[in-house]
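Internal ticket - ligand job 375, iron/sulfur cluster:
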Amino acid sequence: MAGIYLHIPFCETRCIYCDFYSITQWEWKDVYTDALCQELTERKNYLHGEPVRTVYLGGGTPSQLTERQLYRLFDTLVQVYTLSDAEEITLEANPDDLTDDYVAVLRSLPINRLSIGIQTFNDHALLLLRRRHTASQAREAVARCQKAGFEHISIDLMYGLPGESAAHWKDDLRQALALGVEHISAYHLTYEPKTELYHMRRRKQVYPVTETRSLLLFNMLIDTLAGAGYEQYELSNFCLPGRYSRHNSAYWEGVPYLGCGAAAHSFDGKSRRWNIASVKEYTRSVQHGAPYYEVETLDLTTRYNEAVITRLRTRAGLSVDYLTAVYGSRLAQYCLQQAAPYLKSQKLQLSNGVLSLTREGLFLSDAVMRDLVWV
Ligand code: SF4
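stdout (structure tokens):
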């Protein structure tokens, strides 16, 4: 089984914290959609005939595509890949794009899961982050999608926002749970270099939350969602029983996927390929048959490092038997040796041959994983 990722790099406006590749020039959307269809067709053999189990339209803002552009994409997907085995087809959407008419269009396509970028229900924070929607628009959008029959809805939340108090976060979590969605992704705000937010912090126009506040908000997240019946199946991802994201889980398990579009990555089990992060260069190169990507063959240690970083973030953890079988006993032993201080300090646990992060370890996951990778 395999997955397909389609990058839709268009946003109406840019949020000040975001470092994903996207542009605001709409005039490129038609020609880009054509190039995407061409790439999908030309790379049919990348997945070696593996049936496609998941499709994910991410961005950018896929809900900025028009009805015609979406139909064009899905016609190609169905013609080239059939999608008859696809269990999960997700589209990322911004709340303000989800009008009655647009939701009806989405329902008429094979899309069966929506990932809606809400981020917070605090209107002041939404304004600061330059999101395009209000809290009430977000609530209405989710209700509209549910009413239209979408059962699989995920929402994105962000915490650790400048000046965020425990009371604000508690209210965000309360409102998120009130929506009755099956999946919640919650990410701590990061100050990515080159973003406007990063420069605002340097100019002392915004202040990051303290480490103590971050930990408090993180613990509130885990406790509140666990109390409501959500499983934390990955560091930032929570779901009602069995409602995990098939597509993202496949990434973490190292399942091959085809990524099409500007800045999209692909993985075939042995090599990683990434497309140029420029709509202009990408579309022109696809049209003219010129190269628009780079490929890296992944050596054993690179694949080991990727396995450590992705699997350790999951509740399923990192099996020592798996490490030994796939990467050899030398790397498995190295992993256990590097893990020893963290096992002692109870940031990692080893149970039935599976290494996983404890609650404390989850909060410090970057530091733990940095020490387990091969350098
Ligand atoms: S957060 Fe989403 S909507 Fe905002 S700029 Fe980034 S990709 Fe676009």
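Auto-summary: The chain has a mean pLDDT of 97. The pocket of iron/sulfur cluster is lined by residues 11, 14-15, 18, 20, 22, 59-61, 94, 117 (CB under 6 Å).
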